[in-house]
Amino acid sequence: MIPRLQAEHDLPSAELDAVEERLHDDNRRLTGRDDDRALISALRDGQGSVVGIAAGYSWAGIAELTLMWVDETYRGLGHGRKLLDVFVAEAAARGSLRIWVSTHDFQAPGLYEKAGFERIAELTGWPEGHANIVLCKTIQRAPKRPYPAAASAPDEFPAKRA
To answer: Considering 19, 25, 57, 103, which has the largest number of Cβ atoms within 10 A of its Cβ?
Structure first.
């Protein structure tokens, strides 16, 4: 049977999710990395409704922030930075080396830059009259020790005596 190609604008979320999962399966198989997980920090009001979110994922030593939003009522109070800080801390705890984010010039590139993200690219005309800005934060990690600390070093590596 020959597949039929058509534009579809109302693809059900479940069907789109299933196709995306197939793509992720291919990525896992091709890279040998199956450590992908959602990464979300949420701000909730007194009724439990989400009024702010930093969401994305971690995979293969990186994290990507794909959605950052704070309800207008809660903007300007530092909640965006707190959501971002929690996202960064969790990415670091998972061993991510870098965090990527794409934002527009009319959104919050300054928020990311103040948090240590560096501009990597600026794509003008996306949308027309504006720019899409890609930023990256490199997470510093402590260097790995070549062998355990002296107190618990194996016999081949005896602790030095002063």
So the answer is: 103
Q: Which tens digits make up the pLDDT trace of 97-140? A: 999 999 999 999 999 999 999 999 999 999 999 999 999 999 96
Tell me which amino acid residue 138 is: T
Please list, in sequence order, all residues whose beta carbon lies within 8 angstroms of the beta carbon of residue 24, skipping any fewer than 6 positions away.
36
Q: Which residue has the tokens 């939003």?
A: 69
CA distance 152 to 135: 42
pTM: 0.80
From the list 134, 130, 74, the residue with the least C-alpha distance to 103 is 134
Nearest to 115 by CA among 142, 136, 90: 136
Are 33 and 14 in contact, with CB atoms under 8 Å apart? no
Please give the helix or strand (H or E) that residue 59 lies within, else none: strand 50-59
**β-pair type (50-59, 37-44):** antiparallel
DSSP 117: -
